[in-house]
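Structure first, sequence second, as always.
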């Protein structure tokens, strides 16, 4: 019976999640109908050999032909888009909001600001969506053509391969899309960390319509002073990602490793963000003058933002750690 379960799993894991249960029941029934009464292990092997490679059978269950992404990567391709696209659009929208707040000009009317914000946001969101879809598709086409996870599709399949199959529940597995998203986030975060003093800050529009960088929010020298600790945290996160990429399923050892690495990362993050020299000393007076309010109020607001950021990071880290242990126990 284990061979049948392994075979059904190998077929259905290549199919859309919404149709997996129905096809699993149908395929199991088909295999059982092929078996004689009081069947033996050899009868099961013979029936599965008649059905052929799970990859080819999964391809036959597909309703639509796929010309770019094959059955072994199609689900990961769709999952990656579902995972990355919403975040990309959200970040773009947040950047637009922050940018418009910082560039608020008393000369402009509220209506003009809203029209400008909505028009630019729509265009930016469309462009970001197109870029995300394009680059994810290109990435998966390269993975497909280079043979990554192109397991038994082009190879002669044998029933003995099912003995090596590890049946992984959907909720326990780790998708390639999830790993790619985390890896991309670490790259972007690292670039931002080492270049924050050059572009993360207050910008103003010049008479020619170009953006002028007025001042940074963070002290680059302070960030560089903590660079060894930051790189240690990133290196540990990358090692964990490689571990996930190798095993593709949550285990108790992986959950414990995730716990240790997340705690180290959070401690390093809190030490950096709580450093009194991290925020540019000229930022509060500049914003106070720009908004025509007391400098002390801006400094208090910045303190609240730091505390809120720390609390958010701690909560999201605890959720991530809990999810790791929860999935490992499934």
């Amino acid at each position: 019976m284990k061979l049948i379960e392994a075979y059904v799993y190998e077929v259905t894991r290549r199919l859309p999640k919404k149709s997996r249960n129905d096809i699993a029941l149908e395929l199991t029934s088909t295999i059982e109908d092929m078996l004689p009464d009081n069947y033996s292990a050899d009868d099961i092997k013979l029936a599965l050999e008649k059905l052929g490679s799970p990859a080819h059978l999964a391809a036959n269950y597909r309703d639509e032909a796929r010309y770019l992404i094959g059955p072994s990567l199609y689900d990961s391709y769709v999952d990656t888009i579902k995972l990355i696209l919403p975040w990309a659009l959200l970040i773009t929208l947040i950047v637009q909001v922050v940018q418009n707040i910082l560039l608020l000009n008393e000369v402009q009317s509220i209506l003009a600001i809203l029209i400008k914000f909505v028009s630019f946001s729509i265009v930016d969101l469309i462009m970001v969506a197109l870029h995300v879809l394009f680059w994810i598709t290109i990435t998966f086409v390269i993975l497909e053509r280079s043979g990554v996870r192109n397991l038994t599709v082009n190879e002669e399949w044998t029933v003995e391969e099912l003995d090596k199959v590890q049946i992984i529940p959907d909720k326990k597995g780790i998708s390639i899309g999830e790993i790619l998203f985390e890896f991309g986030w670490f790259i972007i975060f690292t670039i931002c960390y080492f270049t924050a003093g050059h572009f993360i800050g207050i910008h103003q529009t010049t008479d020619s319509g170009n953006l002028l960088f007025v001042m940074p929010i963070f002290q680059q020298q302070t960030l560089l002073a903590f660079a060894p600790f930051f790189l240690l945290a990133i290196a540990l996160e990358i090692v964990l990602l490689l571990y996930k990429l190798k095993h593709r399923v949550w285990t108790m050892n992986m959950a414990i490793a995730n716990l240790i690495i997340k705690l180290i990362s959070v401690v390093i993050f809190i030490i950096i963000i709580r450093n009194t020299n991290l925020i540019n000393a000229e930022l509060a007076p500049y914003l106070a003058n720009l908004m025509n309010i007391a400098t002390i109020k801006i400094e208090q607001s910045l303190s609240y933002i730091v505390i809120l950021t720390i609390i958010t990071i701690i909560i999201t880290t605890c959720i991530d750690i809990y999810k790791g242990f929860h999935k490992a126990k499934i």
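Margin note: Confidence is low (pLDDT under 50) at residues 150-154.
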